[in-house]
Amino acid sequence: MSKFNYFLGIDVSKEYFDAVVLLNSDKNNTVHNQFTNNNKGLKELIHWLKNHQANPENTLVCLEHTGLYGKIIIHNLLAKEFKVWVEMSLKIIRSLGIQRGKNDKIDAERIAYYAMKNQEDAQIYQPPREVVSKIRKLLTLRDHLVKTKAMLVKNTNELKGFEPELAKLSQNFSKATIQGIEKDLKSIEQQLDKLIKEDETISNLFEKTTSVVGVGKVTALFLICFTNEFTLYENPRQLACYCGVVPFEYSSGKSVRAKPKVHYMANKTLKKQLHMCALSCISTKGELKDYFERKVAEGKNKMLVINNIRNKLIHRICACVRDNKIYDRKVA
């Protein structure tokens, strides 16, 4: 017997959000309202819920991942001790079958219905600690700065071979910008080091993760942030699947026999970082380089072997975190 009788579906946009409540677990008994996406609108939402006897004990709240726009809603509802389920929009869409037409109210109603239908599988949102949020924001900013610097440098280098005068002009005007970016990147690295040292849990996870051969600072921090300190998965295979390095069978009957391949739905940031780690491993003397050369000599596809190495790295990281031990290279 479910403890929830009310299901609140929220469709979020930048300026406002629509809320629909399914009353008494009845799909046909709903109430709808629209609120501004700010603290004032959240106060009005709480008051509106009270008027309909919806409280933290009997109400399950469900909304889609919307990044920045949904943060204030999640923060306020968690502060009021509501159970919040933040779900991937594609899962909601595909679970509802064929749908015709949409608007904000209908979307909120569909989210509420999804919460009621799948309440047994609800994953209650656990917000990351403040230090994890800071690290993730700094990593995002670092990524933007690295890409901007690379774009400026690449543009100048390409001009050198065709229009030297324009290349010199471009270099002169972008020099101060590049120097400023390099200075900011250095400051971000220092702040990241400081956050790691000041937090015992982060420091411990960072030490265990970076002890694995080929895994560097940025990859370790991305893993800590995206897994909410390695709490969002039950086994290494789940994390490997999330990172997009697990091959899946694709067959049907006698006619469809495609080669197993990784799925396109994955965390592309982690996949890219793990790919760079794997390339580092096969270019440095060690047992993973020996493994790569042996498998390629046997006729295996190079990308297949590299993907295997990415998978191995995840399993090694998870083992170190699970056992709270530094990776022992001698055992490997």
From TrEMBL:
Molecular functions (GO terms): DNA binding; transposase activity
For this UniProt entry, which residues form the secretion signal?
Answer: none
BP-aspect Gene Ontology terms? DNA transposition
- Transposase IS116/IS110/IS902 C-terminal domain location is 210-292
Which parts pass through the membrane?
none
What positions does the domain Transposase IS110-like N-terminal occupy? 8-152
Q: Pfam families given for it?
A: DEDD_Tnp_IS110, Transposase_20
Q: Which InterPro entries match?
A: Transp_IS110-like_N, Transpos_IS110, Transposase_20
Q: Which NCBIfam families match?
A: transpos_IS110 (NF033542)
Q: What is this protein called?
A: Transposase
**Per the UniProt entry, what species is this protein from, by scientific name?**
Paenimyroides ummariense
